[in-house]
Amino acid sequence: MSLELSLHTPPEVPVEAEALSPQRLSGLSRAAVEKTPVFHGNRSVPLAEFFHVDGEAGGDLHLYGDLGRIKHAGAGMSEGRLFVHGDIGAHLGAGMSGGEIRVEGSAGDWVGPEMSGGRIFIDGNAGHMVGAAYRGSAMGMLGGEIIITGNAGNETGHAMRRGLIAVGGDAGDFTGVNMLAGTIMVCGQAGLRTAAGMKRGTIVLFRDAEILPTFSYDCCYQPTCLRLCLLHLAGRGLSIDDGFIGGLYNRWSGDSIELNRGEILIYQS
After folding, report:
1. pTM exceeding the 0.90 threshold for the entire prediction
2. Contact assessment for residue 147 and residue 124, using Cβ atoms and an 8 Å cutoff
3. Is 56 helix (H, G, I), strand (E, B) or coil?
């Protein structure tokens, strides 16, 4: 049993669609789903103004079409599965605490901001502020997993407190800025000022990167826990080079302005 929503009229301005969540639509009749309100700009309109509705609510939720202007899909999810067949807009899975979101395409800015549980898998690219704290908030991602097969933008994992973010491609500048704890992995090239202001946590890089002068070199070793984490990600669908799993890593401690309690691990090819 699943509910399928297909975009028939692309919106002219972004649509605020927190209602696009399996649990929020669960138990509703087809007519009730069609009448579910979303905000198109500053107007409240029924969901049917943009989507064809097929199937039954209560199981998986599938979204089809070019959804780049659909925002807040899966926000606040605590259970269920959301499948996006195409690109999706900003704030995907904001504040989610459980369940699973899978995107067959790319996502906009603010993927999984301040999420505390669940899993987001993006088979494409993501924008800026993945798993980050909203402006003015003390903490970003508090738990769960975000896996991106492509590239991510700036400030990935900004102020994250727990959880795992894995980027199969490149990441932008300020990855892990003000990071409190948790783990970030970047298989491609990381941008500038990685881990600036890092308090605790682990950032794993698989290509050489510019290290801030406030980080100090410790040693070269083979971290056992990293092997387990990489095997876990490979099982989740992320492409992991075999050399990464059994390789050696250079460890850097920092940021010294935060008492050197965080670490950057860089794969030694």
Report:
1. yes
2. no
3. coil
